[in-house]
Amino acid sequence: MSTDKHYWKDAYKEFWDISSEKEKTIKSIIEKSTGMKVIEIGLGAGTADYIRGNALDNNLQIGDADLYIPEKDIYIEVTGPNIPLDFNLPLWIRPDKLNNTRAKLKSGKGKLHVVFHILTQKGTGKKIIRVIKLDEEFYKYLDAGHFKIAKPFIRGRYENYIELPPEHVTILTLDEFLALVIK
Question: Where do the structural domains in the chain lie, given as residue ranges?
């Protein structure tokens, strides 16, 4: 593991605009659909500006969520591939995101934690949004070894991800998530 605090930030800098747009899109969808305020809380969330240092240097935790709905105490991570892929492929989540959420759940922080996974369908360009509910049920599946570990070689390094089957029971549609927020 590199000691360079900016390694991952620099390795993915060509995708900052795409990531920022994903976060802004999710924020807008939730605000328009629910009437609730969504705030950007993660390191660099909603911006493509270069922020020096890592999460800890910026008074955040490694793996903190991108967005937060204060009215409902909901934490939202926004992710997804930056290149078009097939809808039927597994969804990848970084382990640090899952570790952060688990710690928050154990300490009672947050009533709901989710990962918004945005994918552009290869061949059609259609955007597909799926919402992974990170709750006790999800972590039971994780602890039981239900999910595979992917170790792709990307940008000169091996990266680790947890793979979810695209039809997994912990995955909600956007409409199902919005219904949870509204109720």
Answer: 7-182
Residue located via tokens 């078009």: 84
- The answer, yes or no, to whether residue 124 has pLDDT greater than 70, is yes
Contact 92, 162 (CB under 8 A): yes
How far does CA 12 lie from the centroid of its chain?
A: 15
Distance CA 84, CA 128 (A): 11
SS3 153: strand
Helices (H), 4-65: 7-11, 16-34
First to last CA, the chain: 43
Which DSSP string corresponds to 60-121?
--TT--SEEETTTTEEEEEE--SS-B-TTSPEEE-HHHHHHHHHHHHTT--SEEEEEEEEEB
Residue 145: DSSP 8-state: T
The CATH number for 7-182, chosen from 3.40.1350.10, 3.40.30.10, 3.30.420.10, 3.40.50.460, is: 3.40.1350.10
Confidence of residue 1 (pLDDT cuts 50, 70, 90): very low
Query: What's the predicted TM-score (pTM) here?
Result: 0.84
Structure tokens that stand for 123 in this block:
């061949």
Place of tokens 């926004």: 78
